[in-house]
Write a structure and sequence with these properties.
The complex is a heterodimer of chains A (about 140) and B (about 180).
Chain A: H1 3-14, H2 20-30, H3 34-52, H4 60-75, H5 95-111, H6 128-131
Helix pairs in contact in A: 1-2, 1-3
Chain B: H1 6-14, H2 18-40, H3 43-60, H4 70-92, H5 106-110, H6 115-124, H7 128-139, H8 144-151, H9 155-173
Helix pairs in contact in B: 1-2, 2-3, 2-4, 3-4, 4-8, 7-9, 8-9
Classes of the chains: A mainly alpha (about 140), B mainly alpha (about 180).
Chain lengths: ~140, ~180
């Protein structure tokens, strides 16, 4: 195994991602390799420095800008594309109005229903040739 | 407002609660701003990227199916915003995405004689793809799995890039920290 392989293990070790067996092998190598020890020292040093490093302060102007943009975004009604079909539209009608509309639809459909419409009954005319065949006693 | 967990806050933001958004914003603003600042090397770009990140978060939080991965998801948005901005400025010729910070060599910072400044300057002079994984791992303590999700790569690729970043950093630091 070359130095690069051990240095890859050092990178994993710094991240607590190295198994116990591999850690033991790594430290055995470190005890006799100055180059890898140097890499370990610098990598752990960077790790320690970053742990002390504070996060950057956010300017107040950015706070205001972000919160204003989000307030604006939340005020805007949901935009529907021009091609959105009618049936995706939510319609809100008060209950009494909805009940009245339903009542009118039912009454209207009954008024114009063929079941209730009084249609004159058509009397079928019996041809004279057939009447003449009926016995005279039955004709009135 | 009583303390709410991150998942509760995310759920509230999904329902359009702007107070919950504000709480989440204050929890993450310094993390996201530092990440953007370290990646871009420019305060103004970092502010724009942070602004766009949080606005996108608010607008798209409804698409987040698993609220437990919110943190990684937020960093993914931030990363995409930073790279979008760097590409845009690269086209305009103002910032070079590959060589951000490289103007500030370790030598300029060495004159300050501050060890910490040297370390930070060396990190800032790394290639952006190395700096990105190093920031996510060292500053934010993201797991390999989370970094892979944020950067759109695999865990083994993250391990490899982290190693290369540390190797490149060690090479830069060697002249200043010789035993």
């Amino acid at each position: 195994m070359n130095h690069e392989n051990f240095q890859q293990r050092i990178s994993l070790y710094v991240d607590n991602a190295l198994s116990d067996t591999d850690t033991a092998t790594l430290f055995a190598h470190l005890s006799r390799c100055a180059e890898c020890r140097e890499f370990m020292r610098l990598t752990l040093g960077v790790h320690a420095y970053i742990a002390e490093e504070e996060l950057a302060e956010v300017p107040l102007s950015l706070d205001r800008r972000v919160l204003a943009s989000v307030a604006m975004a939340s005020d805007q009604p949901e935009r529907r594309p021009w091609y959105a079909p009618m049936w995706f539209t939510r319609i809100s009608i008060p209950l009494p109005a909805a009940a009245s509309i339903l009542f009118l639809i039912i009454v209207g459909s009954l008024l114009f229903s063929p079941i209730l419409a009084q249609e004159p009954q058509h009397q079928t005319e019996i041809p004279a040739s057939l009447i003449s065949r009926i016995p005279a006693s039955l004709q009135r | 407002m009583e303390f709410q967990t991150e998942e509760q806050l995310v759920e509230s933001v999904r329902r359009g609660d702007t107070d919950a958004f504000e709480e989440l914003y204050h929890r993450y603003k310094r993390h996201i701003f530092t990440f953007c600042l370290k990646l871009t090397g420019d305060r103004s770009l970092a502010e724009d990227a942070t602004h766009d990140t949080f606005l996108k978060m608010y607008q798209n939080v409804g698409t987040l199916t698993d609220t437990s991965v919110f943190r990684s998801w937020l960093f993914t948005i931030a990363r995409n915003e930073v790279f979008k901005m760097l590409r845009k400025h690269h086209r305009n010729g103002t910032v070079d995405a590959e060589s951000v910070w490289t103007d500030e060599t370790p030598l300029t910072f060495a004159q300050t004689n501050e060890t910490k400044a040297i370390v930070m300057a060396c990190i800032d002079s790394l290639k952006v793809e190395y700096r990105e994984v190093l920031l996510l791992r060292e500053y934010e303590q993201h797991t390999y799995e989370e970094i892979a999700a944020i950067t759109g790569s695999t865990e083994s690729s993250v391990k490899s890039r982290l190693f290369k970043a540390r190797k490149a950093l060690a090479e830069k630091l060697k002249p200043y920290f010789k035993l």
